[in-house]
Amino acid sequence: MQILFIHGRAQENFAQEELLEKWSRALKQSFENAGITYPEELTLTLPYYGKELILQRDLYQQDLEDKIYQMRSPDGSPEERDPDDLQKFQGQLLDEIRKEVGITDKQIHEEEKEEIQDRGLRNWWPVLAIARLLDNYSKANGLANSMILKETLDVATYLVVPKAKKTINKFFIDALTKEPTIVIAHSLGTVIAYDILQKLKREEWDICGLITLGSPLGVNAVTRQFREPPKYPSVIKEIWLNLYDKHDIVSLRPLEGGHFRVDPKIINYEVINETEDRHGIEGYLSSPFVATAVSELLNSR
Fold it and tell me: What are phi and psi of 186, to 5 degrees?
């Protein structure tokens, strides 16, 4: 059985082999934590898009600076999108996160008194104010506002820039085989997994299950970018398991209810991610829930 790993953002400083080893160790730790023998027949695959994401993000930012506003869809035709969509989406994403953690409009307006000049997104006072307030909220988690801005900007790049999505998706579509496959995705990788799996036909692929870790799919601003209500990818033949930490600023919500209601229901487990920022892959992938799910999927075959 193949396990296809889909990593998140901020991996551009890793080599692919190093990243695969990191994920493999965490998965084996999951089996140890669950008291289950690790199945050596698993084939672990991790396509690497870390540097490509940064390239696509920077190219788009440069286009904006050069006033090249015409965005194009993956087939080369003009996209009917405002050139400021990425900035607007990032603002919406940050605004939704701050509401979830309880940061009020009054607190944001207090930050305005810093008189930040309006010189683009990163100096647009509401965005910076929210980032600073989120930084204060999450100091125990080791998040700095620069990381929050980069996190949301990278998610926005994938969702808003057509060429970025097409290029990154191809890494994973090319890595899929016809053998039974479990997809395990983290952070931005869960958004990529969801987008790809929606496009696969059940009769052509054997996707046994999906395991999402630290996913931002529960943020409405994210799901609205897919331009249709959330739905369970029909290609998934058995389970979708989602692990989240309510103190992880990227995945504050389970994938259920008004935030991500689908049928059949996603299995949500709240865990404690013991990495510094409560979002690290090791803290999620080493959870015994992952090994239990993988083992059950193996035994069902």
Answer: -130, 135
- pLDDT value of residue 276: 82
Average pLDDT estimate for 163-174: 94
Q: What is the 3-state secondary structure (H, E, C) of 148-171?
A: HHHHHHHHHHHHHCHHHHHHHHHH
Distance CA 107, CA 257 (A): 28
d(CA 233, CA 240): 9
Cβ count within 10 A of residue 272: 11
Going by C-alpha positions, the residue among 225, 80, 212, 83 that lies closest to residue 152 is 225
- Residue 178: the pLDDT is 92
Alpha-carbon span 188 to 209, nearest angstrom: 18
* Confidence band for 256, pLDDT divided at 50, 70 and 90: very high
- For residues 96 and 62, give the distance between their C-alpha atoms in angstroms, rounded to a whole number: 27
Q: 292 — alpha (psi -120 to 50), left (phi > 0) or beta?
A: alpha
Domains, the chain, with CATH or none = 2-52+162-299 (3.40.50.1820), 83-160 (no CATH)
Question: Would you mind telling me the total number of residues written for the chain in this entry?
Answer: 301
Among residues 190, 152, 153, the alpha carbon closest in space to that of 172 is found at: 190
Instruction: Give the pLDDT band (50/70/90) at residue 130.
Output: low
Residue 8, SS3 per DSSP: coil
Element (H, E) at 93: helix 85-101
Which residue type sits at 83?
Answer: P
Q: Please give the model's pTM, rounded to 2 decimal places.
A: 0.82
Whether the pLDDT of residue 239 is over 70: the answer is yes
* Inter-axis angle of helices 105-112 and 125-137, nearest 10: 120
